[in-house]
Amino acid sequence: QVQLVESGGGLVQAGGSLRLSCAASGGTFTNYVMGWFRQAPGKEREFVAAVLWGGTSTYYADSVKGRFTISRDNSKNTVYLQMNNLKPEDTAVYYCAAKGTGVIIATRSYNSWGQGTQVTVSS
Predict the structure, then answer these.
(1) Count of beta carbons in the 10 Å neighbourhood of residue 66
(2) Which one of 27, 33, 70, 94 has the minimum C-beta count within 10 Å?
(3) Sorting pLDDT into bands at 50, 70 and 90, what band is 27?
C-alpha cells in the first residue's frame, strides 16, 4: 500500500487561503485516484475532493465547490488541495487518501490514509 504524508495545515483567518500537500511513497502513484477528506470534532469524516489518475477529472463536495481546488503532480507523487475563501466551518483535520474500489465520495472506498493535518479558520 502507498504511504501518505500531509502538510500545510495551520491557523488562518476567515477569507484567507491555505495549500495542503500530500506526498505519496511506496506505491505506484498513478494507479490511484486520490482524495481529500476532513473530520471536524464530533462529526464523521466527510468527502472534500478527489482527482483521477491523470489529473484532468476532479470531484468536489458542494460545500467547497468554487473555493477549493484539488490537483496532482504525478512527477512528484504529490496531491494538493488549494483552499481559498476559507470559512470557520472549514475547521477540521484534513486527510489525504488513496482510493481502492468503490464510490469516489465514500470513505470506505479508500484504503490508504495519511495522519491528517489540522486546519483552523478563525472568524
Answers:
(1) 9
(2) 27
(3) confident
